[in-house]
Write a structure and sequence with these properties.
The protein is mostly beta strands and 356 residues long. It folds into two domains: 28-127, Jelly Rolls; 132-351, no CATH class. Helix content is 0%, strand content 54%. It starts with 38 loop residues before the first strand and ends in a 5-residue tail after the last strand. The model is unreliable at 4-23 (pLDDT under 50).
Length: 356
């Protein structure tokens, strides 16, 4: 069952006139904070309300299921829902599972279960992580781009080999908390990319902007705290944040992040020997289509932190015809000891992730 809209509440005779048509008084701070993705088992008496809350930064999904009696789901942003105050109320009745789904949820949300009759139930509240760049502020120099398409989460990990040269990996899997996915390394044979599984990633989310980032890479495990990378919290004039790729030449791509007046782009591609490399650039003018790009040298995932170094290595030029289509030109020359270049001109690109 999906949500109905709150425009014209219709109670279908389901409520005894002894029950007030108002939510009971409560202190929002006393409402328990739900852990994203975890299944709660609870019980509600006839006429009783049970409340939960969670902070959201992207997609929010609330599922009520395994009911032993007739109970109803209510969801509202910023305040407690009630009989006539809600943003979602599937209102199926009997013991039918109910679901509320919001694709661009922001801020604090309250979930309520009301017992039309006494009922036990299970409740899962899933707040998807914020999309964009994530990092460990105590180990700057590497990080991930995290994006979503529907309920599929995919991560591009920008890091370094044991010799300090840049490399990247990717992981994709249906979202859960914890989220675990195979870790792929790609090489280029001149015409196409060839993936090999080299380990796994697990992200355990404390909230939509903080997680424990754990990996096994070529048999070597490690973990560290990651958080969403914030530069500018002011609204951006236009936003093309996401994972872009060329559909006619898959295997490389561009992850973009726009915050306020700032834009960050990471191009993932290959060197002269088909090994995966990346270059990063940023600017503070969204109207300029050209981004100067740098190639970095740094520390491997389980190496001690050390300051990174970088070399200006070219530019990329991006333009957009609409929210999901654009073109990309690249002019990258890898600095020694790497070798190779990545030259493309006005290649069509499409948005792989959901629009921001």
């Amino acid at each position: 069952a999906s949500c109905s809209t709150p425009d014209e509440p219709d109670y279908y005779g389901r409520f005894d006139l002894d029950y007030p048509f108002l939510r009971p008084w409560f202190n929002p701070d006393s409402v328990p904070m739900a852990t994203s993705g975890q299944v709660l088992s609870d019980h509600v008496d006839q006429g009783e309300w049970r409340y939960y809350r969670i902070f959201a930064a992207d997609r929010l999904e609330v599922e009520l299921f395994d009911l032993t009696g007739d109970a109803d789901l209510y969801v509202k942003q910023g305040n407690a829902p009630g009989f006539s105050e809600y943003d979602c109320r599937p209102f199926e009745g009997d013991m039918i599972p109910e679901t509320c789904l919001f694709d661009h949820a922001q801020g604090e949300w309250f979930v309520a279960v009301h017992g039309f009759e006494s009922a036990s139930y299970k409740l899962r509240i899933t707040a998807f992580p914020r999309r964009g760049m994530w990092w460990n502020h105590n180990r700057p120099g590497h990080g991930i781009d995290l994006q979503r398409s529907g309920d599929i989460l995919f991560v591009t990990w920008y890091t370094y080999e044991d010799n300090g040269q840049p490399t990247w990996y990717q992981a994709i899997e249906t979202f859960d908390n914890p989220w675990t996915a195979p870790l792929y390394r790609y090489t280029w044979d001149g015409t196409q990319a060839n993936p090999v599984v080299v380990g796994s990633l697990t992200m355990t989310f404390q909230d939509p902007e903080h997680a424990t980032f754990a990996w096994t890479l070529n048999g070597r495990p490690g973990s560290e705290p990651f958080e969403y990378f914030v530069v500018d919290t002011t609204p951006t004039t236009f936003n093309f944040t996401g994972h872009w790729f060329p559909p006619f030449e898959p295997g490389y791509g561009l992850t973009l992040n726009m915050q306020g007046r700032f834009e960050f782009g990471v191009l993932y591609f290959y060197d002269a020997f088909g090994q995966p490399r990346w270059a990063l650039g940023s600017k503070d003018n969204l109207t300029d289509a050209v981004i100067p790009m740098d190639v970095y040298q740094g520390f491997c995932p389980d190496c001690p932190w050390a300051p990174t170094t970088y070399t200006r290595s070219g530019t990329i030029t991006r333009s957009f015809s609409d929210a999901t289509h654009g073109t990309l030109s690249t002019d990258i020359q890898l600095p020694p000891p790497l070798s190779g270049s990545w030259m493309r001109f006005n290649v069509p690109i499409i948005l792989l992730s959901d629009p921001p």
